[in-house]
Amino acid sequence: MQARILLFCGAILGAFGVALAAMGDHLVRGGVDAAAYHGFETAVRYQMYHALALLALGAWSRQQTSRSTAAAAILFLIGTAGFSGGLYLRIVFPQVDLVWIVPVGGTLLIAGWLVAAAAACAGRAGTQPGPQPHSADSVPGQ
Fold this sequence. Notes:
Layout: H1 3-28, H2 34-63, E1 64-66, H3 67-92, H4 101-122, E2 127-129
Antiparallel strand pairs: 1-2
Helix pairs in contact: 1-2, 2-3, 3-4
């Protein structure tokens, strides 16, 4: 996965996290019970953690790309959608039984962290070099 895509996804996830946190403080807090509001705060917190994780993976991918970093990023995105999204849906649709989505999302987040750890341990093995900077002295075609 390209670094700019990871950076974009991390930034968008972070922006929505901030917007949802503000909305939750102004709109959700008074409209739901304490347990539901706690779930909302947990969803926002985990969304922000994984927005930062995607930004870190994007920076890492600029240095070296690998299938493992791409896999970790995909697990973070899908896991955040399941974990945080499931908690958000519980508040919006309390009558619908969506309880299974949250642990599946959490499991994917854990898997993403484990894949990222494996990628870190692998070092440069199995990686493809990222974009190489061009020297100011080099002239294309010579």
